[in-house]
Sequence to fold (508 residues):
Amino acid sequence: MWPGRGGGALIPVVDSGVVVSPDQVSLGVLVAAVPRDVIDPAVAACGVAAKRSDGKLPPHVVAYLTMAMCLFPDDDYEEVATKVTGSLSRFGCWNASWTVPTASGITQARKRLGHQVMSEVFEGVAAPVATSDTRGAWLRGWRLLAIDGFEVDLPDTPGNATEFGYAGSGEHRSAFPKARVVALAECGTHAFLAAEVGAYAVGEKTLAQRLYPRLRPEELLTADRGFYSWEAWDLAARSRAALLWRAPTQLGLPVVQVLGDGTYLTVLISPKVRGAGRRRQILAAAEAGQAIHPDEAHLVRVVEYDVPDREGNGTGELIVLLSSITDPADAAAEELAAAYHERWEEETANDQLKTHLRGPGRVLRSRLPELVHQEIWAWLSVHYALSVLIARAAEAADLDPDRIGYSRVLRIARRTATGTAGFPPLRTGLRPSPPSWPTSPANPCHHDGTAPAHARSNGCATTPTGPRNAPNLPAPATPAHPRSGCTPSPQQHDQITLRGIGSRPNAM
Fold:
């Protein structure tokens, strides 16, 4: 370690010289990313404001304690409270004459807070993190997102079993009840931007359908073939976001037009169009360049390429992608292939959340269903805060955020949260850099450094809070064109070989 500009110690987090100071961790994560002025409106909107002015566990303190429990999963309630009361006192949230609350007191306070507040807090802070300088976050003017799901093991209590259910049945039933989470993540920074939580029996496709309407025109959503259905594509396309999904193996893709780069146009026809005659009419209209009604079909572009020896058995794998970007001038085939493989960055985000932040094989601590929901949203909020810190450190060093060691940053955050981390009574003026909205002819969105007016909000009835409705603070300068980071290179996840239309059946 060596002194930083503010006198604090600077701690390297990658070998190439990126440094993070304790103040940057504590303030950057816990003040800027989750400010008090996001929590208070959420508390008010959900109707759980404190009934006593002299209580030592008012709602905003409980919210921060719940997030601290996610930061310290190995510690019990009282130990977590002991660790962070110094920080709470420093910012006027804690009276030094108070004693640390008991585990029972914290549990009762969490029950009073309810489950919707932390959902609103997450939605209030989870703005896009990547700026135009973030490596691996863009395909030309589109912000790269991915959608994926994961399961969360819960304490085996009657309430959790009833609310969430188990995987399997009989002798093959899982040991613990499981919640299912499906989330949108920013590929370049691993930050979760929106999520849906449900019982294990609720499928990923069902939860995903609740997320598609919250996509934005300046975003490009990548998805694995398990998420495809005509209804899902139709719902996501209506958001006007760009789409790049892998096609299921048996999906018929009739060739409408072969394009100059070897890709081709096809139509995805609604299963509700059952007559063969009407399906032929739709296909003929597409071949003639006529408009087709979006209630019946969507014109899409198909990119096919080989990944040689992906499984290590000497055989290649054909990847077939569907994209709503139909003009090769807007995105070349090589760019789309490279962008799709950025989808794996959400797998990294899931691993950070489950393996590093929570811990491998651990169950959540909440024994009541409403507290499970509360804890999951607090967990996502803490991960988001760490993602903001990592992205800013990477940008300062002109590195891909993948180069920043997540485990190292997490250890620093845990150390500095004890006595120095900031849980402020009010915003201090610090916050994550506002999202950049790059200028692109393909993206009809805001270009003044502000987010679109709508927000990805759910839960309580309230206007969106957080960075989108924050006070007018100076925004950083935004270069005209973001760094794409989606040009294929030998260092990417897979070597790819683009193909022409191949021998795919001209199926309807």
Remarks:
- Confidence is low (pLDDT under 50) at residues 1-28, 419-481, 487-494, 502-508.
